[in-house]
Amino acid sequence: MSALLAIVALLAGAYFVAVLEGWASTGRFRPAGPVLAGLSLLGRESVVPRRPDRIFFEVAPPLLLASAVLAAAVLPLAPGLIVADLATGALFVNAALAYVMVALLMAGWGPDGAYAMVGGFRFLGQLVAYSMLIVMPVTAVAMRAESLTTTEVVASQAPLPNALYQPVGFAVFLVAAMAVCFLPPFDLPTAPGELAGGVMAEYTGWRLAMMRLARAVLVVTLASSIAVFYLGGWLGPLLPPWAWTAAKTLAVAAAMLFVGRYVPRVREADLLAWCWKIGIPLALFNIFFVGVLLLVV
Amino acid sequence: MSGPSKAPANARADAEAGAEAALSGAREARPSLLRRLVSRAGARDLCAFVVPGPEVARARGLGLRAAGLSVSATPRHANVLVVVGELPVGLREAAVVAYAQMPRPRAVLAAGAADVSPLPGPDVSADAAEESLAAGVARLRRLFAGGAFAPEAEAFEVAALGSRTEYACPMHPEVVREEPGTCPKCGMELVEREAADGGEQGDPEDAHQGHDHQGDGRTHEEDMHHDDHAHHGEGDEHGGANHADHGSMDHGDMGFMSMVKMTRGTPRSSDGLQMEWVEAPFGPLLPGLPGGLSVTFTLDGDTVAEARANSAVGRRQDPRGPVEEFVERFARLDPLSPVSYRLLALHAVEDAVGAGARDEGALARVGALERERAASHLNWLAGFGHLLGYRWLARRAEELQLALLRAEAGGIPPIRAEVRKLARRVERTSLLRRRLAGVGIILADPAGASGPVARAGGRGADSRADEEAYLTLGFEPVVQEGGDALARLRVRLAEAQRSLGLVTRAGGISGAIPVPDAGASGRGAAALETPRGSANLRVKLEDGEVTGADLETPSAAQTRLVGAVTEGREVADALVGVASLDIAPWGVIGEAPREAAG
Amino acid sequence: MSPLAQYALLLGLAAGSVGLALSLYGIARSLGKTREEEGKDVPATAGKLSRDPVWARYHVRYYGYALLFLAFDMEMAYMYPWAVVYKELGLTALLDMGVFLAILFLGLLYGWSQGALRRQ
Q: Is B561 in contact with B555 (CB distance < 8 Å)?
């Protein structure tokens, strides 16, 4: 029962994120936007490119959706409201998010088209950049919570949210989260101006609807993970716990979506260089810093 | 469900029931409740793919977003093909390809275009004006809601899209047969290949001379392993360059083949590795590049190994004729800067007649030209921002450009203030500086480009500096050092600001400019600094008719720079470099025929 | 819930998303089939039909980073259990992992100095 509620909440969150994304990219706030777009896409033909790698082409959208949903399934909405409170929740989130890369590479290779191919391999480079930065801060969070269970991670933030306790880790994780869900300025695989849609370009009709849905769920998942790991999840006065989680998640999602308007797209070479030369030393420093804090305080 | 053979009675019954007309690109199905629901949703979610490009729409003052269309980067995500202005001959095929790649239900909206053949007749025709476009979009919505699914839907068949299967020898690609067989030269089995029907595949200029036969030895050995996959090669004109082979290199059935042996003879990349090269068009209709500029990259991974660029626009209407017609046709030569070309034609004709620029009109002409220069730079900036993924910049530049085009003389100073704010903000974005510094750098320029491209490299040639009207207004050219995309951005921003200042000081933006009297004869020449560089025109008048015209535009030289700007760079940087040149493909091909000497 | 039941639930979720894909396919298919037309199934490349395949060895330029990534990924696998018991073990834990991380970090610095961390 709580599992069902959590899934419904996830889909509702994905809907809100889709509305926010439409607002951020077009400047118009259309609450019925995703419904109209979804119906419209279902009514369009879905073209399969000639001689594709059929398995890759077909598997990519459901795989992207599945990985986002699975990662969200271990993130709590409220103390009892979670699909599966795994003992290794924090690890599972990262494991599930690894399939985002697999899905996008499949989407890049499958259609046998130039733009998709370039987009897919650029995302692989993006993964090499963000992957460490999405994992190391979670380690520091687990150090404080003494557990990988996500509910205990939230409980450990009762005195102080991790955003204040480990600000460096928070900043690094935030940037990496934007890179995972390839939001601008990290939209290398789907660059609208350069690659005319990139990996998403060859998907039309219901498959495109699936990709867009999967992308919205992915953004919600990452925003939710930031809320859970760094902003204290359901903790907060006055409002019921699930309202706090929802508010924090949506606030983070809005921040991620709107920040991208004001920055040009990052080059792949620059992203890799900054993540490895600045990001990883910062993440390592963060682990060391949290380690010392935990022993001393 | 649907069936192609519908009894005529049904169609008549539908017509009698007052069913709305169907889209030309409707899906073939009987209308049902779910389909109606979906069509109505689709009508509210119109997504446009603009031909020749969003910058042409902006140059005409059309705000597509305000009209209710969202603009898509790829035809696959669009359901409306918007044709802005007359579709040039060379772009018709590209438009057909884009339309063919749009999933049904799809429609064509012609904004200011009378003839869009071979596309199916426009579902909605509108003028290239804001209100007309909005009304057209509303009509299109109704069409979509009613006619996205139709019992009968025509097929869209154009010769340019067809393909046929042919059989070619992997070793000798020039040996092509219609049926399977063996190659007469080497006896190898002919391999199946897909090729374009109805003529050549790609441009005739696409012949690869550089690296054709080195790959042959390698491809011969590999192809013996590929039984299940058809071996695709490039068209006949491409000689022996078989770059893209299949990636599945497991040769379990034929024994181990070392990578060294497989890649012997292929060109080496900058890091010493030899990999396959793939040819990809970033062709005439990429939204980040100027519409009509056909760019083809040979990609080595994500690096551009070779680049070719030419204008796909094709021949334009011959402008020669009576003086007034000549001037008008000349103005239509380049939809991105009509005022400049109109003024150029006028100056040349006036020079031939011997009239000389009238003083009271000179300042107004300066005002008009400078307003267009600022609008053109803002238009370029909007497209550049879109290419960079810098959405705020793209949006803001587009707003300012449209406001500038609509403004009266009194409305210029506030726009100038806004442009100054925009420029300051762009200067402060360090990520933008980082993104553009060193990209598309041109150090020495043998091609002789002019305009902002040259001035960004420190060569301060500006034909305005010689003109009296400009000197009285206190004009100075903007020159930057660096020769890269960042310098060009700065030059254009500064020029836009200075142009707006000149407009304010000139005090007027002249609308109608009188054409000199007919009946004169003579030869004349004029030069004008268009927003993209200096253009030269020589005309020969005979009895009030222009019988010869010779035009040199800045874009030809800039197109020759594309190779220097792109080769060896990552594809994103290459595209930024090409976009920073601000090439207007309209002036490259299709110049007025050169007159015979004497 | 026992871990096995939780994983079964997660498997059910994955199956559910595949089911969602199939039902979307079903709805779309009930609205009509895709009409096969010339030129429609060629990958969209900005107005020019490019029928050549692109399945070739893609020349990535970030392989220096990728090799270092492997090393660090292995390290992260060890850090997860360490993080859970860290506070319990105290200073020894910090020193143990600190040495490990320091060695890896030196490896990163070495790679940096040798030019691995750049676009090749």
A: no
Sketch the domain layout of chain A as residue ranges. Answer: 2-296
Q: B178-207 pLDDT, tens per residue?
A: 888 777 777 777 777 677 665 444 443 333
For residue B235, CA distances in Å to B98, B165, B242, B305, B311 come to 21, 12, 10, 20, 21
The answer, for C77 touching chain B at a CB cutoff of 8 Å, is no
Are B281 and C50 in contact (CB < 8 Å)? yes
According to the model, what pLDDT value does residue B539 have?
Answer: 86
The Cα C47–Cα C41 span in angstroms is 13
Q: Looking at the 3D structure of chain C, how many domains does it have?
A: 1
Residue A122 has its nearest CB partner, among B194, B302, B432, at B302
List the single residue in B149, B278, B284 with the smallest CB-CB distance to C48.
Answer: B284
Neighbours of chain B (3+ CB pairs under 8 A): A, C
Domain ranges of chain B: 8-150, 163-197+212-276, 321-587
Pairing of strands B533-542, B545-552: antiparallel
As a whole number of angstroms, the distance between CA C50 and CA C42 comes to 7
- Helix (H) / strand (E) element for B309: namely strand B303-311
Alpha-carbon gap, residue A59 to C14, rounded angstroms: 13
ipTM of this complex prediction, to 2 decimal places = 0.94
C49 contacts B196? CB cut-off 8 A: yes
| B279 chain-C contacts, CB cut-off 8 A | 50, 52
Q: What is the mean pLDDT of chain C?
A: 91
**Chain A residues touching residue B74 (CB < 8 angstroms):** 196-197, 201
CATH class, B8-150 region: alpha beta
More confident residue, B256 or C47: C47
Asked whether residue B236 carries a pLDDT value surpassing 70, the answer given is no
Testing the interface with C: which of B257, B268, B302 to mutate, by most C Cβ within 10 A?
Answer: B302
Q: What is the CATH number of the domain that holds C101?
A: 1.20.58.1610
B18 contacts B97 by C-beta, under 8 angstroms: no
CB contact under 8 A, C59 and B269: yes
Q: Is the pLDDT of residue B486 over 50?
A: yes
| H-type alpha helices, A181-279 | 205-230, 241-259, 268-274
CA distance A159 to B228: 64
* B578: enclosing H helix or E strand: helix B571-580
Sign (positive or negative) of CA dihedral A81, A84, A86, A90 = negative
Q: In CATH, what number does B321-587 get?
A: 1.10.645.10
Cα separation, B267 vs B276, in Å, equals 9
Interface contact flag, A135 C17, Cβ < 8 Å? no
Strand partners, B70: B47
Q: Tell which wins on pLDDT, A186 or A27.
A: A186
